[in-house]
Write a structure and sequence with these properties.
The complex is a heterodimer of chains A (305) and B (253).
Chain A (H helix, E strand, L loop, with lengths): L3 E12 L2 E13 L4 E5 L6 H8 L7 E6 L2 E2 L4 H7 E4 L11 H11 L8 H11 L12 H13 L5 E5 L7 H16 L3 E6 L10 E6 L2 E6 L1 H6 L5 E5 L3 H10 L3 E7 L2 E6 L6 H7 L7 E4 L4 H11 L1
Parallel strand pairs in A: 3-8, 3-9, 6-7, 7-8
Antiparallel strand pairs in A: 1-2, 1-4, 4-5, 9-10, 11-13, 11-14, 12-13
Helix pairs in contact in A: 3-5, 4-5
Chain B lengths: L3 H6 E12 L2 E12 L3 E6 L5 H8 L7 E6 L2 E2 L4 H7 E5 L10 H11 L4 H14 L15 H12 L6 E5 L7 H16 L3 E5 L3 H4 L4 E6 L2 E6 L1 H7 L5 H9 L8
Parallel strand pairs in B: 3-8, 3-9, 6-7, 7-8
Antiparallel strand pairs in B: 1-2, 1-4, 4-5, 9-10
Helix pairs in contact in B: 4-5, 6-7
The chains are: A alpha/beta (305), B alpha/beta (253).
Chain lengths: 305, 253
């Protein structure tokens, strides 16, 4: 049995006179014990999808199951089984760290003691602040507490909606290490993120944009299947270089990429010689053939749609 | 102005700038200069003191000790002059969601004292540049985030400030729009605007001329991205950042 299945899920909202299609026919499934990532910018529809799956929102069309239960008819079963960490901090700000945790354990008719092993690694970092009101914690600590509260009833499927947004690089790295350990305990995880570099930490990902899944596969397969020749180009004047690259006929797409610009070549134009010839005037020119990463693939898919 | 030469060359100067809250030292004697027209990346882990430092530079918070000037004005003595001469945008607050595109432009331009004629002219060119002419009477809340952020940046520089402060301007924005945003930053810097920017995207640190990294209230490193990578023997700015941020001893925020 799959941890999550979704078939042709659609959802639209009214925004004034306009209708916004938040989800346009999304289908996918998550295997048991899998760490599945929804990668996409704000407004892609990630939160709407999560809210439908955790039974807080009804889809306009389509079917979905979580842990084998149907999201509309069997929602109470789902609510008992899943852990959900919304994107916005939703714990009680005026309860202490410990009180929040006990509250969530009690609601699910369990105790902190019973499932302490699940949260131990995370909770030890919070223990020095056990009596501090949750509202007075730092961003990273709030995120850890929210994760503990989502785990305390030993969920079978965990939904984490943008747990690392606005969190610095160090805390983000720690958070993903925690997820890996939870996965090893057999918990299925659906996580969303706007950070492309977190894709490689998932078993499979869906690249999501504008209410649609652009592509679903393992991050390795997605980058491997990038067909176009790709070069990283650098010069003494990066601004001028970008404008030059954008005007070249043999180049399909050019964009900044950290220290370099990436130049996606049209088919049959994969020669470094072509680039060198046309960029001869650029000072301190450096050209390297490179492999696409997730962000290259995302940009490519966005432009196809 | 004590040293006019210095202020001609530098858009921002900070000399042992500090801020204490009780016993806690949020910003600990930071010293740096930002050149005119420079894109200066201001990085640091959560709680390293970035926001406090930025609030002092924008004239919103008085330093406990030390000095700083922005656009030639002293942050402690002339905060109102600073506010008139800078632009500011952040991911969290930028535009009024329940006003239309045109209304937002008119509102902010009016606040900065632009004449009606200037507002009309600026609005028209801004809408044309952003290709937002068809959306000009729509509420800002109906625009995709990336468009909002590009609009917010254009509005933050509508009064042609010498310096613009950008606090995580691209958080949550899609990879294409994020790059378009940076092209706007580059264009603006080329025209002489000084850019002071914070970000959690380490590839964006590479787009800055120079980058400072704060750890525990101090500036732990400041140089060009190339020099920082060389100094720390790192392949990317992400590695540089992780090496430095791991040295932090104090709790976030």
């Amino acid at each position: 049995m799959k941890a999550i299945t979704a078939e042709n899920i659609r959802k639209s909202y009214k925004n004034g006179k306009e209708t916004v299609e938040a989800l346009r026919s999304v289908s996918f499934s998550v295997d048991r014990g899998e760490l599945f990532g929804c990668i996409g910018p704000d407004g892609a529809g990630k939160t709407t999808l999560f809210r439908i799956l955790v039974t807080l929102l009804l889809a306009d069309e389509g079917r979905a199951t979580v842990d084998g239960f149907e999201v509309v008819k069997e929602y109470p079963e789902i609510r008992r089984r899943v852990g959900y960490m919304p994107g916005r901090f939703s714990l009680y700000q005026d309860l202490s760290v410990q009180e929040n945790l006990e509250f969530y354990a009690t609601i699910f008719r369990t105790s902190v003691k019973e499932n302490y092993h699940l949260i131990k690694d995370i909770y030890v970092q919070l223990e020095p602040f056990a009596s501090r009101p949750a509202g007075k914690l730092s961003g990273g600590m709030k995120q850890k507490l929210a994760l503990c509260c989502a785990l305390i009833h030993k969920p079978t499927v965990l939904f984490l909606d943008e747990p690392t947004t606005g969190v610095d690089a160090v805390s983000r790295k720690e958070f993903w290490e925690m997820l890996k350990r939870l996965k090893q305990q057999g918990i299925s995880i659906l996580v969303s993120t706007p950070y492309m570099d977190e894709a490689s930490l998932c078993d499979r990902i869906a690249m999501m944009h504008d209410g649609q899944f652009l592509k679903t596969d393992s991050p390795q397969n997605i980058t491997r299947n990038f067909q176009q020749p790709l070069f990283a180009v650098k010069s003494g004047d990066m601004f001028e270089l970008l404008h030059r690259l954008k005007k070249m006929e043999g180049i399909q797409n050019a964009y900044p990429f950290g220290e370099y610009h990436h130049a996606v070549m049209k088919s049959g134009m994969d020669t470094e010689a072509y680039l060198r010839e046309h960029l001869a005037e650029s000072p301190d020119l450096e050209i390297l053939p490179v492999r696409a990463d997730i962000e290259d693939c995302f940009i490519h898919e966005m432009q196809k749609h | 102005m004590k040293n006019p030469e210095k202020h001609y060359e530098y858009a921002i100067t900070a000399d042992a700038l500090s801020k204490h809250f009780g016993d806690f030292t949020a910003v600990d004697r930071i010293t740096f200069n930002v050149r005119r027209g420079e894109i200066f990346g201001f990085l640091g882990a959560n709680g390293a003191g970035k926001t406090t430092a930025m609030r002092m530079l924008c004239g919103l918070s008085k330093p406990s000790s030390g000095e700083a000037t922005v656009a030639g004005y002293d942050v402690a003595a002339q905060p109102e002059d600073i506010k008139r001469n800078i632009g500011y945008m952040s991911q969290k607050f930028s535009l009024y969601e329940d006003l239309t595109v045109t209304e937002n432009i008119r509102f902010f331009a009016g606040i900065y004292g632009l004449s009606d004629a200037a507002i009309r002219e600026k609005s028209a060119s801004l809408l044309r540049h952003l290709q937002l002419e068809a959306e000009k009477n729509k509420l800002v809340q109906s625009l995709p985030l990336g468009w909002k952020q590009k609009l917010a940046f254009s509005i933050a520089i509508i009064h042609e400030p010498k310096i613009v402060f950008l606090d995580e301007p691209t958080g949550g924005v899609d990879p294409l729009t994020r790059r378009e945003f940076w092209e706007m930053i580059y264009t603006s810097a080329r025209q002489g605007t000084t850019i002071f920017v914070t970000t959690h995207y380490m590839d964006e640190a590479e787009y800055c001329h120079r980058v400072s990294i704060m750890v525990d209230g101090r500036i732990a490193a400041l140089d060009t991205p190339a020099a920082l990578k060389k100094h720390f023997g790192a392949a990317s700015m992400n590695e540089v950042f992780l090496q430095l941020a791991r040295q932090a001893t104090r709790q976030a925020d």
